[in-house]
Design goal:
Layout: E1 2-5, H1 9-12, E2 13-23, H2 27-34, E3 38-39, E4 44-48, E5 51-55, E6 58-59, E7 77-80, H3 83-95, E8 99-108, E9 111-121, H4 124-146
Antiparallel strand pairs: 1-8, 2-7, 2-9, 3-6, 4-5, 5-7, 8-9
Length: about 150
Amino acid sequence: MEYAANPRAGFDYEILETVEAGLVLKGFEVKAIRDGKASLRGAYVKIISDKPMLIGAHIAPYQPGNTPETYDPDASRPLLLSKREINGLIGLTKERGLTLIPLKLYAKGRRVKLSVGIAKGKKKYDKREAIKKKDVARSKQRGMSED
């Protein structure tokens, strides 16, 4: 089951590869995510001192009146990856200049997982081309449905 997705990831970036990562969460954050109170809009993954962190994701409180006062919905959250995966991501981001983008939060068994895309930023003309393709496909679909 998918809990949250990053809608602009496919438009702004060319996704080359995906990696599945666990997230360090508190119990009430997991409940909030399962309740659909999470957003990945504008979020990104950054490796800070050899630890991948999810930055900019918003997880609203599950029960606002019952949430600790020190809770920050926009706090950075560590990702759970193996050392080999972390070293591979560090190499890709430093050598090739690629970016790590969170794609979606989803359930795998009882756990909440994050799909992280290894991406390359699209140029403006690539984005325009994608919009044109969508418009052409939409107009073809409309033309078929009107008959």
